Amino acid sequence: MVLRVALGSWALFWTLAASAQTALPGAVDGQPLPTLAPMLARVTPAVVNIAVVARAPMEGNPLLRDPFFRRFFGVPDQPQQGQLSAGSGVIVDAARGLVVTNHHVVKDAQEIVVGTKDRRVFKAQLVGSDPGTDIALLRIPAEGLTAVPFADSDRVNVGDFVVAIGNPFGIGQTVTSGIVSAVGRAGLSMDGYEEFIQTDASINPGNSGGALVNLRGELVGINSAIFGPGANIGIGFAVPINMARAVVDQILRFGEVRRGRLGVTTQDVTPAVAKQLGLTVTEGAVVQKVEPGSTAEEAGLRPRDVVVATNGRPVRSSGELRNRIGLTPVGEEVDMTVLRDGRSLRVRARIGEPFQVTALAGEAVPQLAGARVADLAPGMPLYGQVEAVVVASVDASSSAFRNGLRAGDLIYGVNRVRVRTVKDFFEALRAAEPPLRIALLRGDNRITLIIR
């Protein structure tokens, strides 16, 4: 009886579906029904699948069902060496074979393989990677590639239609659609360089590194994260393409992102702050402190100044200002629009060098192989202003370097435990449960590195 009812229900469903389909007009007002197919035909060849052999063993992965990848990596029916994981990437320069993906997709990779839509497969070179923005750049030795044109992500608005393209769960290229739900999202992982575009287009595991495009087929962002228990719940995040391009430019120039500093401490403009300072604006970054001898002081910045734009681009928050400064190469100038005592001023400030600690020997850190740390000492930058441990050096071939630690970083916390001296730091490391969450200052920015 139950079976007959179920079959009857399915029969009714397909009858109604077929009836609705035959009733659907082929055109509206003489125009064909709208479709994204022509745009996707142009864009999807630029979105690639990425397979990574990492350094840790794991259980089966959807990619292992693909006999080609098993043969390529020499993996038997079940993986016995290394971790095979899946992700996505976007071709941004067809002539040079440049592919952008997420840092977390290729982190700790021993081998990276890129598969294009036309079923070609290439071993990729990791050009560089930036944990702070979760962006990495690969190069593949390929011809006849297709790249995605760039949008201006500063012009993205809530409500814009977008399409996410990637390789969810390693099952193959998939397209989902939605709208921009929010812009400028930050505070998700406390990395200090976040300015996510939020979307309700489905982004699932494996979509990481894929493309978020507008209806013109222009690249708006790089899919980076989902918010929830591991599968899409209607909240996904993408790194704005303007930020990703700034990271790629530095990686191509230097092999890494070289973040400088101005030497200011800032806070958001809030209604309370606006009332206190007599401001007519509701967005921006208020200068709280200017470090003596810094490039900010040289440029004439003062406490209570409100930065509302850099290089003609509006600044909505303190975090947005940190992002702009952190992605501007050392030595370049930033043209800032500043409100001071009700007047609008133009201030040109040079991006200064990060902390230099090359003279320090430091103590080796067993839990962070390749890194050496020391106490802040008289004559060093920020001595007497902050209490932290300075990273004296990091071996470029070490796991500490691959996890994002850099010489000059000021470590002030481990797994939410405040550290002020090297002794505090080692005690916190001994008591910490993995993964390690290292809270640090780098230039003007606060970053949290998660080390597993």
Strand coverage percent: 25-35%
Can you tell me the CATH superfamily of the largest domain?
Answer: Trypsin-like serine proteases
Q: Counting H and I runs of at least 4 residues, what is the number of helices?
A: 10
Identify the overall geometry. Answer: globular
Average pLDDT works out at 80
CATH class of the largest domain: Mainly Beta
Proportion of helical residues: 10-25%
**Which CATH-level-2 architecture of the largest domain?**
Beta Barrel
| Low confidence ranges | 1-23, 57-64
Going across the major beta sheet, what is the strand order? 7-6-3-4-5-9-8
Largest sheet: 7 strands, antiparallel
Count all strands and give the number.
28
Radius of gyration: 25 Å
CATH topology of the largest domain: Thrombin, subunit H
Find the structural class using helix and strand composition: alpha+beta
Overall tally of domains? 4
Describe this structure in words.
By secondary structure, the chain is α+β, with helices and mostly antiparallel strands. It has four domains: about 40-140, Thrombin, subunit H, CATH 2.40.10; about 155-255, Beta Barrel (Thrombin, subunit H); about 265-350, PDZ domain (Pdz3 Domain, Roll), CATH 2.30.42.10; about 365-450, Pdz3 Domain (Roll), CATH 2.30.42. It is about 20% helix and about 35% strand. The strands form five sheets. Strands 7-6-3-4-5-9-8 form a seven-stranded antiparallel beta sheet. Strands 22, 23, 24, 25, 26, 27 and 28 form a seven-stranded antiparallel beta sheet that branches. Strand 6 and strand 7 form a beta hairpin. The radius of gyration is 25 Å and the shape is globular. About 40% of the residues are buried.
